[in-house]
């Protein structure tokens, strides 16, 4: 048998069995609305259009690999949280994607912002987000970071350890200021997600554990501190979660802890933050919960538990990141090679190489995350073939999309677009293999603006100051 790719069409007996969840799309040109920014469509020539901008034009002008983010879609998702979780404070989790422009959109949509480092604080402030609307996270905040946060007057510091409480108290005394604090607790919830992004089981680095008693001790320490104003409890159980069960356990356990705190001190805790983690669709088989349904489920349980425990309903907040920026982003790559590789039982696998990979999206390599993609520059009537989309890096694990059906005539020079790429892709990008990081382009009503310009080799060489 010959396994070849001749004149733009794959002639081989190709392995067609993907995982169970992988559906064979009825139309390979179709754009599943669940995966793409709202309004994404193809123009008459077949080019994918996001936020009114043709990805063919974007690629021509800005090159590939590139990330686009649809401003209207981002804002609509932020607004959906604001409107569904009425009266709650919504902290957009900046770690998912943060630039000055993103911080401005978040501020304009009336959301607050969760930041984790000096860098994120600086970008947020530069984007016009008031310090009072920042929540400062992190399990190992440096003295410089805490000092800066206190000097700027950040809205709240989410305390993660006893060492940090010592540091905050010392800095408050030195600066003559008070700190507003939440205590991050470990609820012991085993969230249904990848091990590396579950954060509430006992054996991990974040928070003070409820079951060991450390959480209550931390709360009482902050409450009795002469320089800390204790706001309440913070819980974040993990990321890319579809089921509400884990959140429900976290709500029960944090409110029970608030009750224990009242018994111990006689004081009510005014706030409760339930963190982020709301899953999005990366492939058509994913079924995230609509934001209003999520809000209704949370509201009902919190009211029920507060009533049962005789607690005042606290002020509530959440920290969605991925659910706001993830579906608004699309990655664009150009296909460089199409290789048909013999695998087993005389079958072949089609490897489609693109001009990016694990340096701009580490998620598949790090969490075995699944994605999908389409040819973005044209329609095709060719039959489907199961492909593996890989990057250009020197790693066998540099796989962007492990299984996806693409048209058999996929060929070098085609563009592919990967939906649901707004969160934790460009934000986690590296320079592995000395590859400059791709640009982040805002699209709105057909206008394209550069939010992060493409990194250049000169940028990289500037850091290399050795002889
Ligand atoms: C404390 C905290 N809040 C919020 C988030 C945002 O999570 P997501 O992007 O899954 O909503 C994270 C990341 O998982 C986090 O660590
Ligand atoms: N970076 C992770 C999520 C963890 C985020 C922050 N706590 C992801 O890409 O899924």
From TrEMBL:
One Pfam family from the record: Orn_Arg_deC_N
GO biological process: lysine biosynthetic process via diaminopimelate
EC number: 4.1.1.20
A single GO molecular function term of this UniProt record: pyridoxal phosphate binding
Pathway(s) the chain acts in: Amino-acid biosynthesis; L-lysine biosynthesis via DAP pathway; L-lysine from DL-2,6-diaminopimelate: step 1/1
InterPro entries, alphabetized: Ala_racemase/Decarboxylase_C, DAP_deCOOHase_LysA, De-COase2_CS, De-COase2_N, De-COase2_pyr-phos_BS, Orn/DAP/Arg_de-COase, PLP-binding_barrel
Needed co-factor(s): pyridoxal 5'-phosphate
The organism's place on the tree of life at top rank: Bacteria
KW Secreted (keyword) present: no
Binding residues for substrate: 322, 363, 367, 395, 424
Record PTM N6-(pyridoxal phosphate)lysine, positions in chain: 95
Occurrences of domain Orn/DAP/Arg decarboxylase 2 N-terminal (ranges): 72-325
Binding site for pyridoxal 5'-phosphate: 277, 319-322, 424
Gene3D superfamilies: Alanine racemase, Lyase, Ornithine Decarboxylase, Chain A, domain 1
Annotated active site: 394 (proton donor)
Role summary: Specifically catalyzes the decarboxylation of meso-diaminopimelate (meso-DAP) to L-lysine.
Subunit structure: Homodimer.
Name of this chain's protein: Diaminopimelate decarboxylase
Species the sequence originates in: Tessaracoccus rhinocerotis
Gene name, Swiss-Prot/TrEMBL: lysA
